[in-house]
Amino acid sequence: MTLNVEIKRYNPEKDDAPHWESYEVPADPLDSALALLLHVKWHIDGTLSLRKSCAHGVCGSDAMQINGENKLACSVLVQDLVDNDGATVKFAPLPAAPVIKDLVIDQSRFFEKYREVKPWLINDNPAPEKERKQSPAEHEIIEEATKCIMCGACTHACPSTWASPDYLGPAAMLKAYRYTFDTRDDGEGERLDTVDSENGLWKCYTIFNCNEACPKDIDITRWLSALKRRSAVTA
Ligand code: FES
């Protein structure tokens, strides 16, 4: 089939504002959406800018808006987007972030928020000779949250992020959950101080956009609700 691929293009050195450009791209239903973009870049217009690395849903670098939904371009198939010859597939950068060029957003703010929740194990006790142990049952509490690949699809799908750029967002707060509920961690107090704040947990209105956007099917809203309960109990 041949698809009409529309890409929101923006080159700050030349353009006053982003604009849509269309390309005719040959495609197989089993191609990834990323393959469509790479065809444009390699065969039609080498100036197209996008991020990608692993192409297997691991690195999280190619999160973008595809037909209006935040997805990893490498992890969605053409057949899941369109079913007829000549159909249109639209690509745009993730919303609510400054665009550096074309599909590449500036992630500085996203990672600043991530660092704010101290996404590392806080434990000042001397490390045991081998490792800080955790039972399978203890690990299960945080296991799903450890699957986050920090692609940003969730945070940039959240209306609270769109309305309040300083909102910590689901990705950072999921990381706060992951360490706060880690039985080896002693940083609960300082982490809860960060998330139990004006731009933290209570701006999550359980809209579930984050769950729908997550390419790893993490039940983010559930874990943020657990963090809210922990925060309310310890306040
Ligand atoms: Fe790594 Fe898509 S390129 S997740």
From TrEMBL:
Top-level EC class as recorded in UniProt? oxidoreductase
* Known cofactor(s): [4Fe-4S] cluster; [3Fe-4S] cluster; [2Fe-2S] cluster
**Could you name the domain of life of the organism this protein comes from?**
Bacteria
Which Gene3D superfamilies does the record cross-reference, listed alphabetically?
Answer: 3.10.20.30, Alpha-helical ferredoxin
The 4Fe-4S ferredoxin-type domain sits at 138-168
The keyword Transcription regulation appears for this protein: no
For molecular function, the Gene Ontology terms on record are: 2 iron, 2 sulfur cluster binding; 3 iron, 4 sulfur cluster binding; 4 iron, 4 sulfur cluster binding; electron transfer activity; metal ion binding; succinate dehydrogenase (quinone) activity
A GO biological process of this protein is: tricarboxylic acid cycle
Alphabetized, the UniProt keywords read: 2Fe-2S, 3Fe-4S, 4Fe-4S, Iron, Iron-sulfur, Metal-binding, Oxidoreductase, Tricarboxylic acid cycle
EC number(s) per entry: 1.3.5.1
Keyword ATP-binding on this protein? Answer: no
The protein's assembly and partners: Part of an enzyme complex containing three subunits: a flavoprotein (frdA), an iron-sulfur protein (frdB), and diheme cytochrome b (frdC).
Instruction: Family membership, please give it.
Output: Belongs to the succinate dehydrogenase/fumarate reductase iron-sulfur protein family.
Which protein are we looking at? succinate dehydrogenase
Which source organism does the UniProt entry give? Longimonas halophila
